[in-house]
Amino acid sequence: MFSDILQGILKETAGGIGISLMGYDGIAIEQHLEDYEAVDLQLLAVEYANVLKEVKRAVEVLETGFMEEVTVKTETFLVVVRALNEEYFVVLTLTADGNFGKARYLLMRDAPKLRDVLS
Amino acid sequence: MFSDILQGILKETAGGIGISLMGYDGIAIEQHLEDYEAVDLQLLAVEYANVLKEVKRAVEVLETGFMEEVTVKTETFLVVVRALNEEYFVVLTLTADGNFGKARYLLMRDAPKLRDVLS
Question: What does pTM read for this prediction?
Answer without folding.
Answer: 0.90
